[in-house]
Amino acid sequence: MLLSYFLMLIRDESGQGLTEYALIIGAIAITVFFVLMVGIRGHVVDIFERVSEEVEDVK
Q: Is this model's pTM higher than 0.85 or not?
């Protein structure tokens, strides 16, 4: 009884397409996030360096 129910769940493919699209969109979102972080990393470092220099000048 339990085994046949489990096998039925394994064979049931309803919702599979939506799940695949969600995984693809999630992977693309993560990739875009990391590309943007690498792209703006230099700008963020420059800003922190300038702020650090200004703080040192105030001391």
A: no
Backbone φ and ψ for 15, nearest 5 degrees, come out as 85, 0
What is the spatial distance between Cα 26 and Cα 29, in angstroms, rounded to a whole number?
5
């990739």: which residue's tokens? 31
Helix (H) or strand (E) holding 36: helix 16-58
CA–CA distance, 35 with 30 (Å, rounded to integer): 9
- Between residues 40 and 17, the one the model is more confident about: 40
Residue 14 — φ and ψ, nearest 5°?
-70, 135
Cα-based distances in Å from 22 to 5, 18, 26, 53: 26, 6, 6, 45
